[in-house]
Amino acid sequence: MRDPADPLGAFGAPPPWLWLEVGFGSGEHALAQIAAHPRTGLIACEVFENGIAALLSRLVPEGADPLTAKLPDNLRVWPDDARALLRAMPPASLEGLVLLFPDPWPKARHAKRRFVHPALLPVLARVMRPGAEWRIASDDPTYQDWVRTVMAEQDAFAPDGVFDARPDLWPPTRYEAKAVAAGRRPRWWRFRRTATPA
To answer: Residue 124's domain is classified under what CATH number?
Structure first.
């Protein structure tokens, strides 16, 4: 994907719905989503080369050149900071946003780096359509408290469920399995973009 100002133009045929996954890890969740929703376009963002390589290894036949391999029609990759993409996207571009197990940046002085942040919420509100779904998951108690606090102090996104077990329609990830095996207790949230005032 090259032009963040025209995200639909990155797809051969513009999809009717567009989702964004921020920090796709090894890509298993993104691949499950595009398989389950072939008419929905998904932009998968990841800054770490290992994650991008893991995703491509699942898509590119052995021996093929990953630089010229064709991605699935409904998947595009943004190998950079998702915030740069979001700031360039047109208004009301997204039908959904996925943020699974982000880096918690546990130290107070690093809180400004968290993706769930009051300074980023207006950007997210601008690019998400009214009614659009935002999925968040975290196994870190500090981040869980942070999500609860930040989202309680805004009105652009309405709570639509908080879960102590992963909702059925959300594909599992390897990170989630590791967190549970290590005794951590993940939490999942769903928010909806509120209607834009007239």
So the answer is: 3.40.50.150
The structure tokens listed for 25 are: 């890890």
Q: 1 lies in a domain?
A: no
Q: What is the spatial distance between Cα 154 and Cα 77, in angstroms, rounded to a whole number?
A: 30
Catalytic site residue from 65, 73, 80, 103: 103
Per residue in 61-101, pLDDT tens?
777 776 676 778 999 999 888 999 999 999 999 999 999 99
User: Has residue 198 been placed in a domain?
Assistant: no
Active site residue 103: yes
Is the pTM higher than 0.85? The answer reads yes
